[in-house]
Write a structure and sequence with these properties.
This protein has 12 helices and 16 strands. The protein is of the alpha/beta class and 321 residues long.
Length: 321
């Protein structure tokens, strides 16, 4: 299951959906489209869902009908939730009633949780840190900050533009379990890549992510890349490096970073910057495309998932930290 919708989130969903039909930055419309198209499968507690729908019929019959349609088609599943709190929520300083609202996201297998809000803003961070599971609140959708999960964003970078990997990636950093990087020229071009800023930022909210990198290079180039990795202090990741076999160069063309929740396609690789202290300057025109996991069923996110083992079969493992 992709996500769990808490009861408070469900209750505010009709009003938030209506608000998203007006001009603004709300991401509720793309969130709803992702569910209705089957890209994002969500669950909700069955205890209050029927009562909620009956009340909604009186005020918003068409919206009630649409939500019933999602439920009947299995895109929004109503499930029975165990009333006892799971061990993952053994987090101090948070009211039990608040924990119960989101407990369904742990008693059934889900990747994310969508909730209304917490009385104490620190509660969300405490739970995310303890459980290593993305916990989104109403504000994230109403302000459009997680719109990228259900859509694609493009970024056009021109020569002379300032760009910083840490500042760019931090907006999309989540607790990741897996990160995959593919670029046939990464080992060769390491002198022109801000590896420190990129890797430390993409793992900033993860306890320990598994990173697999596929590239191509000579022994000397790979050794230099290893040294760059080892020099990165405080990197919270288990890393494996792979070198492409010499006769399969036609297989590898993509330059991308893949995570559990999005993939970033770098049109011209990761060496488009003239590195400077604090900021970099774009030295060759390029485009970046960020595609969320829930944007489509046939996106590059799924393409990489389906192809990754085949890529590894055409590589040699050259480093494990």
């Amino acid at each position: 299951m992709d996500g769990f919708l808490s009861d408070p989130f469900i209750k505010k969903l009709p009003g938030n959906l209506k608000a998203s039909w007006l001009p603004g930055k709300s991401a509720y419309s793309v969130f709803y489209k992702s569910i209705s198209r089957g890209y994002l499968q969500v669950a909700a507690s069955d205890e209050n869902f029927i009562t909620f729908i009956e009340d909604l019929r009186k005020t918003e019959p068409e919206l009630a009908k649409a939500l019933i349609s999602l439920e009947s088609s299995g895109k929004l599943r109503t499930v029975q939730i165990d009333t006892s709190l799971p061990k993952e929520l053994n987090v101090s300083g948070i009211r039990i009633s608040e924990k119960k609202h989101i407990s369904g996201g742990f008693t059934i297998p889900t990747d994310t949780i969508f909730h209304d809000q917490f009385d104490n803003p620190d509660s969300r961070q405490k739970i995310t840190d303890a459980t290593q599971k993305p916990l989104f609140i109403e504000h994230d959708l109403s302000e459009g900050t997680i719109e990228y999960l259900f859509n694609e964003r493009s970024f056009c970078l021109n020569i002379g533009d300032t760009f910083n990997w840490a500042r760019f990636i931090i907006d999309y950093a989540l607790p990741f379990k897996k990160i995959r990087i593919l670029d046939p020229y990464l080992y060769k071009n390491i002198d022109n890549v801000d590896l420190n800023g990129l890797l430390k930022t993409v793992t900033k909210k993860s306890d320990c992510a598994s990173i697999e990198i596929i590239s191509n290079g000579s022994e000397k180039q790979i050794a230099k890349f290893k040294n760059e990795l080892i020099a990165i202090s405080g990197l919270k990741a288990d890393i494996r490096l792979y070198n492409q076999l010499s006769d399969v160069s036609d297989t590898f063309h993509k330059r991308l970073i893949w995570t559990d929740f999005w993939v970033l396609f770098a049109e011209r690789g990761f060496d488009f910057l003239k590195l400077e202290r604090g900021l970099g300057t774009v030295k060759k025109e390029t485009n970046l495309f960020l595609t969320g996991k829930y944007a489509a069923k046939n996106s590059i996110w799924y393409q990489l998932v389906n192809s990754w083992q085949g890529y590894l079969d055409k590589c040699t493992e050259v480093f494990i930290n």
